[in-house]
Amino acid sequence: MLRSRPAGTVGGRGGFSMVPYLDIFNETVIVARPAENTISILNPTFRSVSNGNWTSTATWDYGAFSRPHDVVIPNGRTVNINVVSTVSSLTINCAGAVTGASATGYIIGNIHKRRGIFIPTGTANGYSG
Asked: Where are the domains of the chain?
């Protein structure tokens, strides 16, 4: 889940201000711009910042997530897939890695493969190694 924290007003160019808010239920970032009378709802890209389990808060820059997001595993990171997870997209850079594929741990969604890696995938009906 996204880490919830109160956010103050952030000054911007031209005198307008932004009020960011982390919606932990929907795992989105909401940015209000009162001076412009607009609201933006952003779906963040989750990037692994350390090696670890897919479900570990410490593995991801925005903490653990349960809804489909764009996910990136950069070079030098290894993520253990310990749960069935649906992603909007998963990109694994060529020196990034995933481990732990099984009937109870695989990825459903759009997967961008880079050269030289194996990615365990699945459908709503099950795992395909």
From this structure: 10-42, 46-122
